[in-house]
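Q: I'm writing a short explainer about Branched-chain amino acid transport system substrate-binding protein for a general audience and would like to include a description of its predicted shape. Could you first generate the structure from this sequence?
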Amino acid sequence: MRVSAIGCSALLLLAVAACGGRDSGNGTGTAASGKCQGQQTTGITDKSIKLGGIYPLSGPASAYGDIPKGIKAYFDYINAEKNGIGGRKVEFVVRDDGYQPPKAVEEARRLVEQEQVFALFQTLGTPSTTATWDYTNQRKVPQVFVATGASKWGSDTTHPWTIGWQPNYVSEARVYAQYLKQEKPEAKVAVLFQNDDFGKDLLGGFKRAIEGTQVKVVAEQSYEVTDPSIDPQMRNLAESEADVFLNITTPKFGSQALAADAKISGWNPLHIVNNVAASITVLKPVGFENVQGVVSSSYYKDPNDPTWANDAEMMLYKQKMQQYAPGADANVPYHTFGWAAANSFHKAMEAAACPTREGLRDSVRDLKGVKVDMLLPGVTLDTARGDGFPIESMQLMTFKGERWELFGQVIDTRKEFGPLTG
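A: Of course. Here's the predicted structure. Afterward I'll give you a sentence or two in plain language.
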């Protein structure tokens, strides 16, 4: 449904008076008065808000297609039972880019210009988001809580309409580096990484974090998302005789690397897999017996962890997933990720000074200790002027039996390592 000014109720007219009114669709706004004069209200009325998401529902990263199922379940739940966000029912339009940046640009244009969404909520992947953020910022369309941990979403100052959500890859790398400094201070590390901004960001952050220590990167191999297999790279890495393997991959290649590690005779390194490929859906096809002791990190609750069996938010999530997404498995962590991200958007939108695109842009950059119940205890949303990283706390975990087990304490990387500078 396209939004028009015709037929808006008295409630919307009150919002117009306070926050600047609806625009005419050309991005200039039509407000006559108020502190939000001229701000954009395309895609939002007093009764509805329309969001667009872009995901690889097909292609080499299609495992991430589970994320929007969790998001939609959350929005369906609050629409039916909580009267939406501030009385506005949420319509969430999902497009498939196949993990192809040119397709992501095409879908972003379709969502903004044809669907006339209020905001892009979650564009997944560093390549796809990089391809679209010039366009969204030129159009002054919020591109909020993008599903990628690239550090530039928080450090870049020329794209104020785009912001990440999950811990950035440099901060995640710092956590692994700190772990090795303590547990294997003379570690020899072999690295497999995706040959794009995602892989290079995490690898670069790791190298900077181990500078001045005895932890050394002794071998590196990259892969392309179009590669059919990473077996040749894994054989080359095994020849390095490294005692740590840092696996910087997306789900398809994460599974391949875990399987190859288990098969290579005579090589038994400590295996660290980055968070974005640590889902149970990545590990299960490899065989749980082959991934025992693998290390990763997280920041949100695992639906498979009995620690949260009686947790109020986890019980609500599982109940509502069954009710609003009956064909989806609530134990898939990507669904949980989506639920947590949607709840984060809900809180940011409620905190906006005005129900406008500018109001949302400013709200997501002024989050102060916002609690999201699906995040781990101690993990909150925090942003400020000069700090565009909502989540920078993580906890290490290791795979035991048929699930991940958290260990140690939640690590606030802001406090432990200082502010991220890129």
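A: For your explainer, you could say: The CA atoms of residues 75 and 353 lie 21 Å apart.
Q: Perfect, that's easy to follow.
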